[in-house]
Amino acid sequence: MIPLADLHSHLVPGVDDGAASLDEALDSLRHLRAEGVTALVTTPHLLLPRLSTDAAIGRELERHRRAFDLLLDATEGASDLPAVALGQEIWAPDAAAIRRVASRADVGFGGGDVLLVEFGFVLKGTHEDVIEAARAAGRRIVIAHPERYRFVSGMDPLETAAAWRGRGAEIQINAGSLTGHYADSAPGSESLSWRLIDAGLADLISTDHHGTRREGVSPREARTALLARNLREAAERLLSTNPGRIVRAALESAAIRSA
User: N or C, where is the chain less crowded by C-beta within 10 Å?
Assistant: First the structure.
């Protein structure tokens, strides 16, 4: 088994709709380590449209940080847990929203330059302005689970994803999408996830783990699904090489900031 890395999860205890307690977060991390995940960035929601001021954003980030520090202390010295860093899943539907946080040193994977961004499950256009605004601020964008989005009528998902990548974004697919986990909420997500992979437009697979809601978040099951289609190289690239590069940088950045 190749070592796996994960850069989208909700395992900071008690801050969003993910892990509700420290014990639940640790149990989830232990479960991921048993599946081969050696390092991850956990990414609580930063819902910018619901945070009306810069002070509100600061308070939310501080709340995340305090809860994460408790989690980090609990993982110290544990051999059965992955290494962890803190990031955010940022809801930024437009350029104005992402500009509110793009220059903040307390936003990003481990305080580094990579941002995990979701545009909202119902797209309002191409949202290329979000990518451009982040890039103008010196940030790199990972777009969270576009296979689950509802695209504007007449907008081709593959052409849109190719345009996003052409502007420097990376595409992150949820592990559960490969096996139909989101069939009820996003009926086309399984098909689109495989089309993105087959077209070479997917860069990363992550769990989007929400604590006890474990069904459909297994990186091991995602790897098995890829291998069943003879996509061994894609499995290593999407689950290990690409996310590993980003997660290692996040861990290094976090270590520098805490030194």
Answer: C
